[in-house]
Design brief:
The protein has 4 helices and 2 strands; from the N terminus they run E-H-H-E-H-H. The protein is mainly alpha-helical and 127 residues long. It has a two-stranded parallel sheet with strand order 1-2. The radius of gyration is 18 Å and the shape is globular.
């Protein structure tokens, strides 16, 4: 008697139980980032555009079932990190910086409901 083999499920490329960390900037921090970023020409022209794009990315990820954690970024801290790591301040370095901060617990990951400025339309805080 033949026993049917179980179908193997394809493994997702990203484990959905691991949160995706997204950098979040206050308006003032984002404007400072635009001044110091080595790839500023590739960034959104305005904070409002960046905020809207980030909100859309957040929604898409959440609707796809991924947990998302927002990490506040202080640009002065990013600058210091980039200098010590001898890295340009570009998208790749910003991602690595957020990942390191998250892994070190600095700053502490915030729950999305407690953020002063989030992709959910809460009041903006000028940091």
């Amino acid at each position: 008697m033949l026993v049917p083999m179980k179908k193997r499920r394809k493994k997702p490329k990203h484990k959905k139980e691991n949160a995706i960390c997204m950098a979040w900037y206050s308006r003032r921090q984002w404007e400072l980032l635009k001044q110091v970023a080595d790839d500023a020409e590739t960034m959104d022209d305005t904070y409002s555009q960046w905020e809207s794009n980030t909100q859309n990315a957040f929604r898409i990820l959440r609707q796809s079932g991924y947990p998302v954690e927002i990490v506040d970024v202080d640009v002065a801290e990013l600058i210091n990190w980039a200098k010590s790591a001898r890295r340009p301040i570009d998208g790749e370095a910003r991602s690595e910086f957020v990942l390191e901060k998250t892994n070190q617990g600095r700053p502490k990951k915030k729950s999305l409901q407690n953020l002063p400025e989030t992709p959910f339309g809460k009041k903006s805080e000028n940091k």
